[in-house]
TrEMBL record, chain A:
Residues 7-264 form the ABC transporter domain. This is ABC transporter ATP-binding protein. It is found in: Cell inner membrane. It comes from the Bacteria. The lineage of its organism: Bacteria, Pseudomonadati, Pseudomonadota, Alphaproteobacteria, Hyphomicrobiales. InterPro entries: AAA+_ATPase (IPR003593), ABC_transp_ATP-bind (IPR050319), ABC_transporter-like_ATP-bd (IPR003439), ABC_transporter-like_CS (IPR017871), Oligopep_ABC_C (IPR013563), P-loop_NTPase (IPR027417). GO terms for molecular function: ATP binding; ATP hydrolysis activity. It holds the Pfam family ABC_tran. GO terms for cellular component: plasma membrane. It comes from Microvirga aerophila. GO terms for biological process: peptide transport; transmembrane transport. Keywords: ATP-binding, Nucleotide-binding, Transport.
Automatic annotation (TrEMBL), chain B:
GO terms for molecular function: ATP binding; ATP hydrolysis activity. Signal peptide: none annotated. Residues 10-258 form the ABC transporter domain. PANTHER family: DIPEPTIDE TRANSPORT ATP-BINDING PROTEIN DPPD (PTHR43297:SF2), OLIGOPEPTIDE TRANSPORT ATP-BINDING PROTEIN APPD (PTHR43297). It is a peripheral membrane protein. This is ABC transporter ATP-binding protein.
């Protein structure tokens, strides 16, 4: 790597202990059980770029998001943002300064805003917490500015969250994320709870803000069309691993990994009325006892013995033995 | 009107919710037909009244809601004014239902076999062993592997997609004429969603069942439906063949809705944005309910309610398409 990326995620892992309580294990027998939610995920995000993680439920994309912002400690691996490791114990002061620049937008705008607080308190909280502005008058001015930034009226600050619709609440959440002059925003399914016309408003707003403020986004979504619209680079996750990582145009015009192809094929797209689809088989297996080797092998039409035995490494942007061996007639690096 | 009698015919249906502040009109005069073997998609954003329409057809509107006017005809028979006991017999036998969340529509305390056999025996006079055999056939039909073994499982032992298949089997039990599917794939992952869509289409074709598919997902409608009704604030803004409505919508709201959907094929720089949001039921604007958000609005829209106008195969409720109205602006 010649230039240091703004965000670097190296071999991130997270294991959850999902065993039965100790007493039940003693009485009923049974081993300790672990769930590998995220199993060796690495990616980089350049400054001002939107990187998206896409996958079905249980693929571990939200767990990655929570580890990147530091809401959840990783079991192993590290997150480096702007050259500062989020997991090293040494640089505590530096890390605290960094925290200000990282914010998160959550999926459910009904749950992520305190219902007892007025909107201007919600938006002012990061300003107060980080001590960015002194003096109530200046804080109020900044809050009003932020609210008009996201398309609300400064007078809306005196209202409570329940007085707003879902889309407006998501705007408030964005204003709060911007309040601390954040540079890097992790968005976990920011529009999944919204209607399409409102979703369009929020996605347009997020892109406008990125253009104006040079924000960097990590965008988590299960909706491929939304990801296509927002992201410049995309990582496709399946059962805790990235199976394919590529730039947006490439991924959608020439998907390589069999799972990516299956996923793209499964999306009902408005433009293709009457198109024949290749039927998709199977579902995501139970992550507590994932299949051996490549976790996609039970659903993959190209699986052989090696796929069952050996975990494919991510080479040339795709983790698939069949492609690495040239069995599918596509070159991984192309 | 076609010569063949439609399976479901809804005429000028009105549904109100009575509150302290007066009656809120959730459905305000909608009319549509569904023919045998046809899939009608009902699409709209939250609050448009699409689920209430479904509930009205199966007679499951809870007080304070009530049907305030209009008629619902099932194969020519009026069903909106039946006593509850008779309606209960029609429900399940002649109209099947599939809801969004498969976990809440199955009883977690009973095995799937008990639930299926109970439903079959309630509506037919099959013996319990014949009913069980029919239940196994149904599970095989909806694509559950090893149905003889799986039939004795509890709902929690199935995955989300498999559970939705069980719910579909339950709806198909007694070969209903009409199935109402309310957001059947919303709770499922994309790859599973595609399987369920394919299943619904196949079953509709094979059994000749009319399907009313309620969803907010235009993609699902485009894949599944023959015709589509776009609802807005309790009214049908536009209804027509799915290809026409998706590719060449006439109503300004339908146009905005189609443009707002991000596409897989092309990365548009900006999505079409409809300003504002759906009005609350307590504050539906006079005239056309879409007028405050409409880019083509003119004076008549603010005072007079647009009635559906036939435009080739579409019916569209918009003054722009009324020849007698003076156009203030050409439609782009």
């Amino acid at each position: 790597m010649t230039e240091r990326s703004y965000v670097e995620v190296n071999d991130l892992r997270r294991v959850f202990d999902v065993s039965k309580p100790w007493l039940n294990r003693v009485l009923e027998g049974g081993e300790k059980q672990y769930l590998k939610a995220v199993d060796g995920v690495s990616f980089n995000i350049a400054k001002g770029e939107t990187f998206a993680l896409v996958g079905e439920s249980g693929s571990g994309k939200s767990t990655v998001a929570r580890m990147v912002v530091g809401l959840l400690p990783p079991t192993s691996g590290e997150v480096i943002i702007d050259g500062i490791s989020m997991s090293s114990r040494a640089a505590l002061a530096e890390r605290q300064r960094l925290r200000r620049r990282i914010q998160m937008i959550f999926q459910d705008p009904y749950a992520s805003l305190n219902p007892r607080w007025q909107v201007d308190q919600i938006v002012a909280e990061p300003i107060r917490a980080f001590g960015l502005i002194d003096g109530e008058k200046d804080i109020a001015g900044r809050v009003g500015e932020l609210l008009s930034f996201v398309g609300l009226h400064p007078a809306d600050g005196k209202k409570y969250p329940h007085e707003f619709s879902g889309g407006q609440r998501q705007r408030i959440a964005i204003a709060r994320a911007l309040a601390s002059n954040a540079e890097f925003i992790v968005c976990d399914e920011p529009t999944s709870a919204l209607d399409v016309s409102v979703q369009a408003q929020i996605l347009n707003l997020m892109r406008d803000l990125q253009d104006r403020l040079g924000l960097t986004y990590l965008f988590i979504s299960h909706n491929l069309a939304v990801v296509r619209h927002m992201a410049s680079r995309i990582g496709v996750m399946y059962l805790g691993r990235i199976v394919e990582i590529s730039n947006g145009r490439e991924l959608f015009s020439r998907p390589k990994h069999p799972y990516t192809r299956m996923l793209l094929d499964a999306v009902p797209d408005v433009g293709m009325t009457g198109r024949q689809r290749i039927p998709v088989s199977g579902e995501i297996p139970n992550p507590i006892s994932p299949p051996s080797g490549c976790t996609f092998n039970p659903r993959c039409p190209f699986a052989n013995e090696r796929c069952v035995a050996e975990v494919p490494p991510l080479l040339g942007g795709v983790a698939c033995h069949a492609i690495h061996e040239g069995r599918l007639g596509i070159d991984a690096a192309a | 009107m076609s010569v063949v009698q439609p399976v479901l015919s809804v005429r000028d249906l009105r549904v109100e919710f009575v509150t302290r502040r007066g009656a809120l009109k959730a459905i305000d005069g909608i009319s549509f037909d569904i023919a045998k073997g046809e899939v009608l998609g009902v699409v709209g954003e939250s609050g448009a009244g699409k689920s209430v329409t479904g509930s009205a057809v199966i007679g499951l509107i809870d007080p304070p809601g009530r049907i305030a006017g209009g008629e619902i005809l099932l194969s020519g028979m009026r069903i909106d004014n039946l006593p509850p006991e008779e309606m209960r017999r029609i429900r399940g036998k002649r109209i099947g239902m599939i809801f969004q969340d498969p976990l809440t529509s199955l009883n977690p305390l009973y095995r799937v076999s008990e639930q299926l056999v109970e439903t079959i025996r309630t509506h037919t006079n099959l013996s319990s062993s014949a009913a069980r055999k029919r239940a196994i056939d149904l599970l095989a039909d909806v694509g559950i592997p090893a149905p003889e073994r799986r039939i004795d499982s509890y709902p929690h032992e199935f995955s989300g997609g498999m559970r939705q298949r069980v719910v579909i089997a339950l709806a198909l039990c007694v070969e209903p004429e009409l199935i109402i599917a309310d957001e059947p794939t919303t709770a499922l992952d994309v790859s599973v969603q595609a399987q369920i869509i394919a299943l619904l289409k196949r079953l509709g074709r094979e059994h000749g069942t009319a399907i009313m598919l309620v969803t907010h997902d235009m993609g699902v409608i485009a894949e599944t439906a023959d015709r589509v009704a776009v609802m807005y604030a309790g009214r049908i803004a536009e209804i027509g063949p799915v290809r026409d409505v998706v590719q060449n919508p006439l109503h300004p709201y339908a146009k905005g809705l189609m443009g707002a959907i991000p596409s897989l094929e092309s990365a548009a720089d900006r999505l079409v944005q409809i300003p504002g949001s759906m009005p609350r039921l307590s504050a539906i604007p006079p005239g056309c309910p879409f007028n405050p958000r409409c880019p083509y609005v003119f004076d008549r829209c603010r005072v007079e309610r647009p009635e559906p106008i036939q435009q080739s195969e579409h019916r569209v409720a918009c003054h722009l398409y009324d020849q007698s109205s003076v156009r203030s602006e050409a439609v782009a």
